[in-house]
Design brief:
This protein has about 140 residues and is of the alpha/beta class. The protein contains 6 helices and 5 strands, in the order βαβαβαβαβαα. α4 links the parallel β4 and β5. The radius of gyration is 14 Å and the shape is globular.
Length: about 140
């Protein structure tokens, strides 16, 4: 399952991503469901993280204007490892070494073409475990 969420800053890109992913994945969209420039990213980040906690082995892609606001909220939840997708290599390493389960994207600074590449790396790269597991356990303590 892939959980999607966005505020107004990421809404347009989220809708494109949802249509793209729905062809091959079970996608759960927790909002926003319409463009409203008065909505706030904390609301949608919290909805996505609540759904992540309820669901085992889910991943999430959350979007706001820059990706930063959503990332801040997501990383406040135990067991959630979120990062802003900047490059394919950065996302690959974040999956391999940090076991990220949330990919944050900036709707205002990420093209749909780039988002698709980052998402494919996010969804198709495995966590290496080993020495990295010890580090993640230290974070959760």
């Amino acid at each position: 399952m892939i959980i999607l969420a966005s505020d107004h800053g990421g809404y347009e890109l989220k809708e494109k991503i949802k249509n793209y992913l729905a062809k091959n994945y079970d996608v759960v969209d927790v909002g926003a469901f319409v463009y409203d420039d008065k909505d706030d990213y904390p609301k949608y980040a919290k909805l996505a993280m609540q759904r992540m906690i309820e669901s085992k082995n889910a991943r999430a892609i959350v979007l706001c204007g820059s990706g930063v606001g959503m990332s801040i909220i997501c990383n406040r939840y135990k067991g959630i490892y979120a990062t802003i997708g900047v490059s394919e290599e950065q996302v690959r390493l974040a999956r391999q070494h940090n076991n990220i389960n949330v990919l944050n994207l900036g709707g205002r600074n990420t093209s749909f073409a780039k988002a698709k590449k980052l998402i494919e790396v996010f969804l198709n790269t495995d966590f290496e475990g080993g020495r990295h597991t010890k580090r993640l356990n230290a974070i959760d303590k």
